[in-house]
Structures are given as C-alpha cells and as structure tokens.
Amino acid sequence: MEKMEQIQLENVTFNVPEVLSCISKYQEHVRDIVNSNYVDFLSINRDMLDDLKSLETDIKELIASTSQLTVDKSNVAWNDLRNYQRDLEEGIRGYKIARKLLSIHDLFESLNLSGNGYEKTAHILTKIKTMLDELDDPVLEELHFFQGLILRHETEYDKLLNDLDVTFNKLVQLQQRSFQNTKSVTIRIHKDENLLYQVVVTQLKTEHNFESVCQFLLENVFAPVIVKPVSLICDEKSNEQSVLIQLSYQLSVGEDLRPGYKTVLSNVMQIFYNLSNMNIVVSDDECLFKVLARQMKKRLCSLLMEQCLDRDIPDTIEGMKESSMVKDVCEFNAFLKTTNFVDGENDDLLEEYANSIETIHQKKLCDNVLDTAVQIMKHESHEMVLIEDHEYQFVGSTSARLSSCMVTRTVVDLKKFLDKVLAEAFANGGAADRFIQTIATILERYMVDVPMANEKLLFKIPQQSALFRNDCTYLNYWLQKNDDKLKDHSSFATISEALKACGEDIFQHQLNTQRTQMMQALNGFKLSIHLVELGTEQQRAVRQCVRQFELLKNVWQTVLPESVYKQSLSGLVDQFLREIMKRIQNLEDITTAIGNGLVLLIDIITETLPNLFKEPSEIHQLVKQWTKLLQLRQILCGSLVEITELWAEGKGPLTMCFSAEEIKHMVRALFQNTKQRQACIASIV
C-alpha cells in the first residue's frame, strides 16, 4: 500500500480543494479494503494487518493536521472536512477491532502447537480470556464472530480442565470396593513427579476444587482408620513407578473393638507419610497439602478428637498418671506441621486439645463418679441398717437424749462412696473443686432421682417414707460432719436445707395419708339423737383406727428416731381422740345405754393406745387429749354429785380440759331435767 503523500497546509483558503481531494481518495481506498477483506474476517493476512497499522498512523497524522487549520467554521469546506475526519475515525475503529480479533484467533491457533504443556495452555487461555473480557469497543459484543470466540474459549477451557482431571486421576488413583461385610481401599501414586507437578500447578492456577479428593480421604481412609481396626499396607519401595497405600476393614465393628489412640495416630502418620509423594510444592507458600488442609483439616481434627481421643482419655487418676496422651498428641500435631498439612487457622487445634486433656480427664472422672453414685441410688435395697446415735444426730444437736434409727443399705453405700470422693478431692488438689462440685450434683440428683424412681413405694408404704426421711437426714448429717471441708462452697448450705426439706416433705405426705385414712375409718363412728344404743359399726371404726396405729408402730418404732416416732404417732392419736370426743360432746342426749357403750369404747382406747410407746405412761405427756379422754370417761360414768365435786366451783381437775359450757352441755345430755341437775348446772360457772 502506498504511503499517503504529506501535504503542507499553510493557508487553508487556497489548499482546501487539495485536502478534500486527498480525503476523498483515501476514503474510497479504505472502503475498497473493508469490502474486499472484511467480509470474511479470517482472510485478512498478517501483511495486510501491518499495512493497516501504517495506514492508521497516517490517518491520525492527517486528523491532527486538519484539526489545526484556521478557517471560517461556517465555510462549506470546513463542514466537509469534519465529515471526512469522522469517516477516518470510523476506519481506525474498524482497524482496531480487526487487529484484536485476529490476535485472539492467532492465540487459539497456537493452542495446537506441539510441545504445549498444561501450564502454557492455561496461560494462553488466560490471555485469551483477558482479551475477550476487555471490550474496547461496544460493537464487539454484537459481532456474531466474537460470540463464537467466547464459546470456543469455553470449550477449550473445559477441555483443559477435563484433561487435567483425567491425568491427575491416572497419577493419583483413588479406588474403593465394597463387599458384603468388608471394604477395600487402594491409593496408588505414580512417581512421575514432573507431570504431576504440571498438573497440580495448573489445577491450582485454574482454582481447581480438590473437595472430591478430601471427601474420599475422609470417608474411606481416615474415618475408618480412626474408628475401626484396619489392615493397613503402605509400600513405596517395591514398585519403582508408584507408591501404594492399601487398607481393608469390616463395615460393621463393635465398640469394644475400636483401636486405641496410639494405633490410630501411628496409622494416620504412616498414611500421611506416603501421601506426601503427591504433595507438589508450588512455591514457598503453597503446596498441595496446604490446599487439602484448608478443606479438610478441621474436619479431620474434629473426627480424631471426638471419635478417638475423647474416648481414650483416662477416667481414673492412676490411668492419667500413666498416660502419655498429651505428649503423643503434641508430637502428632508437630508431624502435621512438618508435612505442611497446615491451613493457617486450625494448626493449633490439636495442641490446644492436648492442653485441655487434663481438664477433660477431670470431667470424665467426675462424670464416672456421678454415674457410679446414680447406680448406687438405683439399687432397690430393702435391707435396713441400724445407725447408732453418734453416727446420725446433727452436729451441735441440743437433744438431751440421742437415739438410733434405721436407714437403707443404699444410703449407707452412698455415704461411704461420698467419703471416698471427698478423700480423693483433697488428695488431688487440681481436681478438688470439680470433685466437690460433683458431690453437690450427686446430692441434688439424689433428691430428684430417688423420689421419682420410688414414687409409689414412698407414698404408699409407711416404712419406705420413714426410711427415706432418715436417709435424707443421714446425708444431711454427713454434710454437717464435713462442714469444715465444704464450707468454702456456699451451695452446700442450700443443699443441706433442701435435703432436710425433701425427706420431711415425703414423710409429711405419708402422715397426711394416714390422717386421711383415719378420718375415713371414723366415718363409721356416727352418733346422732336417733341412736338408741351403740352398735358394732362404732366399735369397728374405733378398732380399725387402733389397728392402724399398731401397724404404724410396727413399721416406725424401730425405724424412726425415737423423738420423731413419738411426735408423729402422738400427733395422729391426738387428732383421733379429738375427733372422737368432739362427736361425743356434740350429742344432745346420751342415754344410759349409749353412755355405757361409749365408756366401753374409751376403755378399748385406754387399754391399747398406751402400748404404742415404749413407756406406756408417756402417753400422758405425748398426747395432749389423753387427760381429757380420761376425764370424759369420768363424766360419762359419774353422777351429778361426782361431776359437781370434780368441777369444784372451777377449781377441780375438770377445769384443766373442759370449759364450763362444755360441762353444762354434757350434764344436760346425760341427765334428765331435775332439781338436782339444775343445782349441778348452777354450780358450774
């Protein structure tokens, strides 16, 4: 192509025709080039592209020259000149587009050159991608040919990724086969380091996701090695061309067959050592192991800690003293760092865990202590143990007379166990607080678990509720006895009160049940004005209540502390007597037959109830209504004269238990209205 001749335009008035002529000629020339060569873009050759580049330079110089002309802008020549400038600029735009498309085409052609490795291919495709993304001219997106280039790039890029995957899978073969009861896993790493380097480096540059490799290693290799006994073969010497890792294991394995942590760590280290044959080092800061670690290290460490190490932390003090787990875990963590299996975030996870092993050991130890205590609580022991007074009474008790009682064998065993735990706490200072807190938890569990597990027995059987009350008091005594060792822990003061309340609540519920049962029996003790004489119903009701008291005596007297027994049973008897006497005193008319019958019933009561206590005579002090019952018998049997003498103008013995109105009411009910009755009533004031 000829060079455009240089024109000196010193005076635009005389040279405009020449400029217009040159522009017109140039415009026609450009149109000829476009029409003949750009119908099919790929027909443009490299020489033509160079000529177009030269033409572009000439056009720019021409535009620059014409832009400096001084001319009347209303002149027709000037307008033509501006139009020619725009045409030339459009020509340059077309040249640039053609040059870019041809450059991209040349890059695609270079992909087919022999000797291109994966890295170079990836580099070329990256360069093509960059050029396709740089849209210097918006018209590019509208070109059908340009869209074809984008599609071709995607095809070539996918082909590269597929080739990389295929080659990597040939170099690092991951295989697993499942049988009916077993599974076999084989990893074969070929020793073609140069090719593996190219593949891995290119995969990393293309941001390849190695999740499938990580998932295979976790699910088929590391997880089984951690939780199951495996047959592991690692061989990197017998075959010069490859390294072999092979393991097989049962699909279903009992918990008792799980391997110990030392075996697990040894196997994992052996596997990593052989996997290092595929650990391509890309740079000082990057390698394949680091890539894998970023995706799987946290999961691997969690699996190792939760499924292996947690289980093997000793749960006894002796076992912990002999264990080297802390040292072993730290050495394993250092090994992972040495092999570059690091992710920058979880590299100290195992070391932190190692530092917490002592704390976890203490927790396991205390959990075992709690489990043992709970198992003791669950023993259905109906055996009773005699506890002497010095083993039972509260420290600082003001009771003048101490007494023995019965507790269950279960609570005695629990108390002995608590003694042992407390001794361990002070023998191992580091775990003392945790041990003591466990003691608190044991006592809290006792107040919940035992009542729930024995609910029916405690609420229905009087002896069981009495034993539970004693058991709670016995444990409360144990707390007070060890107050000097536990006083720094404020929770025990609350637990002590709660224990006492728990036992008392159960026993009080039993007392309320006995009161209800007694009142139901007394429903048969009906007295009314229509009654002519007492029948068997009233006597049956009284005897039923007496029998109830005698049964309680049989199950409570040797079980409860003497003071508790006396207070509990005397309270029931007192209520019984009050109810009997209230019904008798409410009668408006008491015939001789009814009176004699009532005396007989009172005689039954006075003959039997004193025997509820070791010292029958104590009933006078223990049962408040006892004296009143005896005096009521005197009233029922006495004459008007005797009653008057017993009242003695308000100074006699009857005044201790009866009011004047009560005596008057009884006189009216027992005696007919005569002058003697009137005189007697008049004297009672």
Describe the protein in words.
The protein has four domains: 16-66 and 80-114; 164-355, no CATH class; 379-513, no CATH class; 515-683, Methane Monooxygenase Hydroxylase, Chain G, domain 1 (Up-down Bundle), CATH 1.20.58. The protein has a four-stranded antiparallel sheet. It has 685 residues and is an alpha+beta fold. The chain has helices spanning 12-37, 46-67, 76-110, 118-133, 144-171, 193-205, 211-227, 261-275, 288-312, 317-322, 325-338, 349-355, 357-378, 409-427, 432-453, 455-460, 462-481, 483-486, 491-521, 536-556, 562-585, 592-608, 619-622, 626-637, 640-647, 660-670, 675-683, and strands spanning 172-178, 182-190, 230-235, 242-250, 281-283, 286-287, 384-387, 405-408. It is elongated, with a radius of gyration of 54 Å.
How far apart lie the N and C ends? 155 Å
- Helix proportion of residues, in percent? 55-70%
**Oligomeric state as shown:** single chain
- Gross morphology is elongated
Main pleated sheet: 4 strands, antiparallel
Radius of gyration: 54 Å
Structural class: alpha+beta
Number of helices: 27
Taken together, the total number of domains comes to 4
Tell me the number of strands.
Answer: 8
Strands across the major sheet, in which order? 1-2-4-3
**Unreliable stretches, pLDDT < 50, 5 or more residues?**
1-17, 33-44, 394-402
The mean pLDDT is 83
> DSSP strand (E) fraction?
5-15%
Domain ZW10 C-terminal helical: 540-684
Subcellular location: Chromosome, Centromere, Kinetochore; Cytoplasm; Nucleus
GO cellular component, one term: nucleus
Domain Centromere/kinetochore protein zw10 C-terminal: 403-519
